[in-house]
Amino acid sequence: MSPSPPGCWSILAILPAHWSPSGRTQGRLVDRLYGRAEDDTFPTAYRANTPQALTRLAEQTGFSIVALDTIADPTYLAFNQTLFTLMCALDNRLPADRRIHIVGVFRKSDGRAQ
């Protein structure tokens, strides 16, 4: 599972890093919103978080894609029942390419015809 960069909520998660390259803004938000220590945030360097990148990497490394889907996650910003209900309604209306997570199943190709 990987976060999908074009996902609406992923974009919101990226913004604090642009406001404060040191990560302090993101750390403070994580502390306030999720109750985790500021130290519990880390810089990210995603290289395999789009369906296109995953497909390319699978081909380059001898894997075949069994399944590759995007899924919504209404809990991402659901800090209370009202926000959870709102997030469920919003997530159900998002196009597939705007959902927050990518989930895939890959199989190592053995070189034999199937």
Structure, described:
- The structure is a single chain.
- The chain has 114 residues and is an alpha+beta fold.
- It has one domain.
- Helices cover 41% and strands 17% of the residues.
- It is built from four helices and three strands.
- A three-stranded antiparallel β-sheet has the order 1-3-2, covered by helices on one side.
- Helix 1 packs across helix 2.
- The radius of gyration is 17 Å and the shape is flat.
- The two termini are 27 Å apart.
Helix percentage: 40-55%
What would you call the structural class? alpha+beta
Tally of individual domains = 1
Name the shape in a single word.
flat
User: Mean of residue pLDDT?
Assistant: 76
- Please report the number of helical segments: 4
Q: Characterize the main sheet.
A: 3 strands, antiparallel
CA radius of gyration: 17 Å
Task: Summarize the entry for a quick read.
With 114 residues, the protein is an alpha+beta fold. The chain has one domain.
Provide the fold topology.
Elements: E1 2-3, H1 8-19, H2 24-34, H3 51-61, E2 63-71, H4 81-93, E3 101-108
Antiparallel strand pairs: 1-3, 2-3
List keywords for this structure.
114 residues, alpha+beta, three-stranded antiparallel beta sheet, 4 helices, 41% helix
